[in-house]
Amino acid sequence: MELRASVPSGPVEQKWDNHRFEMKLVSPANKRKYTILVVGSGLAGASAAASLAELGYNVTCFCYQDSPRRAHSIAAQGGINAAKNYRNDGDSVFRLFYDTIKGGDYRAREANVYRLAQLSVNIIDQCVAQGVPFAREYGGLLDNRSFGGAQVSRTFYARGQTGQQLLLGAYSALSRQVGLGRVAMYPRHEMLDLVVIDGKTRGVVVRDMVTGQIESHAGDAVVLGTGGYSNVFYLSTNAKGCNATAIWRAYKRGAAMANPSFTQIHPTCIPVSGDHQSKLTLMSESLRNDGRIWVPQQKGDTRPPDRIPEAERDYYLERRYPAFGNLVPRDVASRAAKAVCDEGFGVGPGGLGVYLDLTDAIKRLGEQVIRERYGNLFEMYERITGENPYERPMRIYPAVHYTMGGLWVDYNLMSTIDGLYVIGEANFSDHGANRLGASALMQGLADGYFILPATIGDYLARTKQEKLDPSHSAFRRVEAEVTERTKRLLAIRGKRTVDSFHREFGRLMWEYCGMSRNVQGLQVALEKIPALRAEFWENVNVLGANEELNQSLEKAGRVADFFEFAELMCHDALERAESCGCHFREEYQTPDGEALRDDADFAHVAAWEFAGVDNPPILHKESLAFQYVSLTQRSYK
Amino acid sequence: MDVTLHVWRQKSAADRGRFVRYEARNISPDMSFLEMFDVVNEGLIARGEDPIAFDHDCREGICGTCGMVINGVAHGPRRGTTVCQLHLRSFRDGDTITVEPWRARPFPVIKDLVVDRGAFDRIIQAGGFISVPTGSAPDANAIPIPKPDADLAMDAASCIGCGACVAACPNGAAMLFTAAKVSHLGLLPQGQPERRQRVRQMVVAMDREGFGSCTNYAECEAVCPKAISIRFIARMNRDYLKASLME
Question: What kind of fold does domain B3-110 have according to CATH?
Answer without folding.
Answer: Ubiquitin-like (UB roll) (3.10.20)
